[in-house]
């Protein structure tokens, strides 16, 4: 490739969709900065926070964002960058804006309520993990001893699935997952690829299996795996490259078998 | 909570899966049959027995190829119209399509297309599946209303379709006049092209996603392989659909009428007075 190294000392522009608080209208502001060497989106947001003056010379409040690990394992810094959802901590300026005068557009995720500016409330994402009981049931008052053995094969599958960091990219890109501010409707709205994949992880886990039927019941109901429309955006935007569409199909299969079984066994 | 959504919620899983199934049985199976029958207006050209009931004089004037095509197509249509319990088959088909359509619209409304942001091929597939579903509803309704229920006021000609003169009356309903094509005929032909193309796409893509829904194809490789199979089937159906349309657009209506007249004159028993024929439209030749 004949691409030149990004030139140092260049000026780049940030176009940021801002919002002063829940329910408040959003508006756009632009900032010019000279990014530091090896800068990323977060370091640039820090620079803007130091001198929050727009391109028009108007003094404003610092832009608010969320972040944690700064190494793409916590998911907190997820936002929509140049129209696509991803983590901002690993959004390198040399890649996103290599030339003088390049613009980077930042928006909060659209499927979650905005807390302020680029910071959103991902509560529903965690709520949906609770819907499928995405955990291993080991709480007790005495030691349960060692758990059953996991085969190396299932360990390999589980490892990939366990890398999910609850970032919400798969939900932001999903045409079937849409913003729902009314919490009472969460249990009937589409649960999302992340939760379907976690249900698969824990249903295949030797101890997690104990809650298998409850997870499959939840996934069979309204807002469950049947609501997936197979657009397969989720798998393409997942930063951890989790095989979400395989998880969706695997849970489709599991719910099919579950339905046949409960029809004949008469449990329900 | 109102009863409707209560019922929907209690049987959510079953309804979802019945919706998926009804797209294949009966609708998909029927579409396959229907396109095979219709395409005989094109591939009937290679069926040497297609013209066996057409008189030598007619073959002389309309040509062997046309005689074979119309003869084969009429034979197939007659076979279908002589099937026992045809009305039951038809009604279950209408119910199947109605069920699939109503639930399909309900499900489609839960999504929000975002191809402008995420322009992946699969995302386009998703949006197209919904769009083609809507098109197919209008198209199938128009198709059945004009040809089966005799709503000729929606047709470019006043001629009702007749299963005894299947080729000529359909060509008329498509083109709008005996020779050439009328303005209304162009619109209807275009609508047929779009409608049948959308329906075939909807079936092929629906088969692909159904395998994920039911959990038949789990791994990415399996989904890809099944994708090739569905694309192949879709391409095959598309060839059938388009060749039928081309066959009818190229068909000379008056030649077809001559051939059909021969078929009924010589072998009236083949099509005459079926007690179960719910279609009361008269053959053109008799009506004149
Ligand atoms: S495959 Fe399903 S979960 Fe993934 S983006 Fe598409 S609709 Fe959403
Ligand atoms: S599945 Fe991937 S995209 Fe979805 S929350 Fe987990 S890490 Fe993020
Ligand atoms: S800050 Fe944790 S993923 Fe970016």
Q: Short summary of the structure?
A:
With 268 residues, chain A is of the alpha+beta class. Chain A has nine helices and seven strands. The relative contact order of chain A is 0.12.
Using the 3D structure, state the CATH architecture of the largest domain in chain A.
Orthogonal Bundle
Radius of gyration computed on alpha carbons of chain B: 21 Å
Question: Any idea how many domains of chain A?
Answer: 2
What strand line-up does the widest sheet of chain A have?
Answer: 2-1-5-3-4
* Oligomeric category: heterodimer
Kindly report the average pLDDT value of chain B. Answer: 91
Domain tally of chain B: 1
In helices, the fraction of residues of chain A equals 25-40%
| Tally of separate helices of chain A | 9
Query: What is the CATH architecture annotation of chain B?
Result: Up-down Bundle
Pair with the biggest interface: A-B, 35 and 34 residues
- How would you name the CATH homologous superfamily of the largest domain in chain A? Alpha-helical ferredoxin
- Total strand segments of chain B: 0
Per the principal axes of the C-alpha atoms, what is the gross shape of chain B? elongated
Query: What's the N-to-C terminus distance of chain A?
Result: 63 Å
What compounds are bound to the protein? iron/sulfur cluster, FE2/S2 (inorganic) cluster
Largest sheet of chain B: none
Shape of chain A: elongated
How many H/I helices of chain B?
Answer: 11
CATH uppermost class of chain B = Mainly Alpha
The run of helices and strands of chain A is EEHEEHEEEHHHHHHH
Describe this structure in words.
The model of chain A has no long low-confidence stretch (mean pLDDT 95). Chain A has 2 domains: 108 residues, Ubiquitin-like (UB roll) (Roll); 143 residues, Alpha-helical ferredoxin (Fumarate Reductase Iron-sulfur Protein, Chain B, domain 2), CATH 1.10.1060.10. Chain A is of the alpha+beta class and 268 residues long. In chain A, 43% of the residues are buried. With 288 residues, chain B is mainly α. Chain B has 11 helices and no strands. In chain B, helix 2 packs antiparallel against helix 4 and helix 3 runs antiparallel to helix 10. Chain B starts with a helix and ends with a helix. The interface between A and B is medium-sized, with 35 and 34 residues. The structure holds iron/sulfur cluster (SF4) (2 copies) and FE2/S2 (inorganic) cluster. FE2/S2 (inorganic) cluster binds next to loops of chain A. The site of one iron/sulfur cluster (SF4) has 16 residues of chain A, from helix 5 and helix 6.
